[in-house]
Amino acid sequence: MFYCTLRDLVLYLHKDENGFRRNQIGGDNLHNAIRIHHALATKATDYTKKQYVFRLQTADQAEYLFQTSDSKELQSWIDTINFVCASFSAPPLEAAVGSQKKFQRPLLPCSHTKLNLREQLSDHEERVMRLESMLEEHRRCPPEKGAKSQVVQNYKEKEVYLNYELKRYRTYTYILRTKLSQYLEMGAAMSATMGAGACPPGSLAEVDEGLQPMAAAQQPPGLPTTDLEQPKSSPTSAVNRCSFTVVHIIYYPDQHKTLPKEMSGMK
């Protein structure tokens, strides 16, 4: 079992409860840290060995399976990770231009976005439409019969990439829309209690007022845990904590590092 701390766009895995409760970030915790920028969390419905397992796919194509304690915690972790990724991940860089025909994935920056939530949602929606158009165009031009295996392989890789990116950005769009609608409802309730001096329900100013504190604090939604605190050393860093089990690692991107024994032994 690992103890987890989610801070901004990094998931820290603690080996013991002491490091988890003290919020120690360093040493082995840095080695076990997982960057979640541009990541996607989904239910691992195809994994039947254990219950309440979610899959985390990261920007470097690594894939992790995590087991939680119950269905409520499972959904909470999925929503939290996807909301943090959708809110803070910077827009991807444009794809490289060159003479090579081999498909290459665009670079995904690990920095924080400079957009607020509404601008971030708008950017995600534009990318969904762009990816739908790219996928449709890609499917209209399949490889000819008898094409070289490399050409077919490149075609398949690009189709897999476009499908995954479309799924990821649709998830981002959905969860940001949900959060923004919740802020609108919250703002409308606050306007009713504050009286005439408040902004009209559903106004843009009201939404901005609701988003500014959230963007400043970078606060992800809460998890059903009993140990949740704000670190004194970094008042703008949001921390969510929970314990769960790493049940499987499909691919570890850094070939120059060895897996911790606790990770490599779980299959």
Automatic annotation (TrEMBL):
It comes from the Eukaryota. PROSITE patterns: PH_DOMAIN (PS50003). Keywords: Coiled coil. Residues 215-237 are annotated as: Disordered. Pfam families: PH_9. Residues 1-86 form the PH domain. Residues 114-141 form a coiled coil. Residues 227-237 have a biased composition (Polar residues). PANTHER family: GUANYL-NUCLEOTIDE EXCHANGE FACTOR (PTHR10663), PH AND SEC7 DOMAIN-CONTAINING PROTEIN (PTHR10663:SF376). This is PH domain-containing protein.
